[in-house]
Amino acid sequence: MEYSEKVKKHFLNPSNLGKIEAEGLGQGEELVTGEVGNPACGDLMKIYVRIKNNKIIGCKVETFGCAAAIACSSVTTELAIGKTIEEAKELTRERIVQELDGLPPLKLHCSNLAVDALKKALENYEKGINVIKK
Amino acid sequence: MEKRIYLDNGATTQVDPAVLDAMLPFFCKKYGNVSSLHSFGKEARHSVEKNRKVIAESINAEPEEIIFTSGGTESDNLAIKGIAVYMRDKGKNHIITTKIEHPAVLNVCKVLERKGISVTYLDVDPEGFIDLKELEQKITEKTSLVSIIHANNEIGTIQDMKKIGEICRKKKVLFHTDAVQSFTKVPIDVKKMKIDLLSLSGHKIHGPKGTGVLYVKKDLSIEPLLHGGGQENGKRAGTENASGIIGFGKAVELASDKTHVKKMTRLRDYFIGRIEKEIPDTKLNGPEGSKRLCNNINMSFKYVEGESILLHLDNYGIAVSTGSACSQLNLRPSHVLEALDLPDEFVHGTIRFTISRFTTKAELDYAAEKLKDIIKKLRKISPLAK
Lengths: 134, 386
Ligand SMILES: Cc1ncc(COP(=O)(O)O)c(C=O)c1O
Hints:
Chain A has one domain: Alpha-Beta Complex (Sufe protein. Chain: A), CATH 3.90.1010.10. Chain A is 39% helix and 25% strand. Chain A is built from six helices and four strands; from the N terminus they run H-E-E-E-H-H-H-H-H-E. Chain A is globular. The longest helix of chain B is centred in the N-terminal third of the chain and has 20 residues, at 39-58. Chain B starts with a strand and ends in a 6-residue tail after the last helix. The model of chain B has no long low-confidence stretch (mean pLDDT 96). A seven-stranded mixed beta sheet of chain B has the order 2-8-7-6-5-3-4, with helices on both faces. Chain B is α/β, with parallel strands linked by helices. The chains are: A alpha+beta, B alpha/beta. Bound molecules: pyridoxal-5'-phosphate. Pyridoxal-5'-phosphate is lined by residues 71-73, 76, 102, 104, 149, 153, 178, 180-181, 201, 203, 212 of chain B. Pyridoxal-5'-phosphate (PLP) is lined by residues 71-73, 76, 102, 104, 149, 153, 178, 180-181, 201, 203, 212 of chain B.
């Protein structure tokens, strides 16, 4: 149950972990959030997606979870930023695992929730749930 | 990585250099088989018997009551299978244990259940203590054995051996205890405590890995696990691991200096105090004071996850363990933490620090500083911490 160097790197120095405050939004920008997981199971993620003109211009995650969960969160935000909403929807768990040079088998399911949180946020966006407009 | 600080002495310990020195002659010079009649055998036998006596005396047992094994796991297996199987044939098919045993006991019980022996798993209170009244009530005329861990390996709870021993003797059932963690740290007297079987391991007390002892009270019949050349009074076949036994004995001798226990207790309480004062929203698991193992510190940190803490500490060269890593398919924390019924927001952020007589205050200060930073950092990115 060893982690790859990539996982370690993302875990120790994750990109984009934390929250995006609505006050910081620029003109024409929107902020949407999505949450997945369950603290009782030891994994919970809340993702913040900043959107302008159908494009993801910012993305951060708050993560409660193990090293794999944090590394997956970091990679997910990196891959999401710069994509259009349609492109971001195509992101998969497999893509995240690939980016991390693999994950221990037991971690494949529980930890890899960030991409689900992203999808949840984009779904919310389309339904107009949890969306803040500037 | 400049610094390396080992705070996982509950997992295993450094071999004391004096132990290694004592062992070395038994590899290339005094390598005789203790069963051999010639001088090589005799010299090995003498040393093994001397060390058997040292270990026997340390728990107030007789030398012939000491069986050498390959470790704590084998001792637990031999004790429980050996008694339960032997007694089942005499019509006693029930044993009693607790929900917070080491897997070396719990998984043996699971196997026995599949073989038609019924097992009662006693609950524990929030500090990890069994209820003596419940124990007494659960003993029936079908009960052959009660197996209760002396000091818990995760949370350091020390059970009242004397009271348990009295209950078992009164109810005429045999009493086994896994004393792997408590040995040399908590006084053990098998006569006063009315213990019938007791498991020990060498590598938790600065001895070599792969060495263990099962104390079996005189005249007690036990079904062996290993059959062969009749060593260890026919209770455990196989050529004795002479070098290992010498090392185990030496480790026991070195641990007879009880200032070590005082020092560890002081450091333990110092570290707990620092963490409780400097890191908010933490919880000590297990009891405080004299009912807690002198080298065990088990704490939960709200809103963060144990494995993340562990790996950040590891990055600073600090070695600890966690009972809350989601390493099991069911995503559940360890059976011990489950038995304590900790609140969800605490249970996943549990870290065990286990010190040794070699641990220094400076090491604990370094660990406390790093831990403070790590918890702050992880809470900053946690959606639970507000
Ligand atoms: C309480 C307890 N029992 C049994 C064992 C197993 O001992 P060993 O590693 O010598 O097989 C351990 C060590 O992990 C332990 O802590």
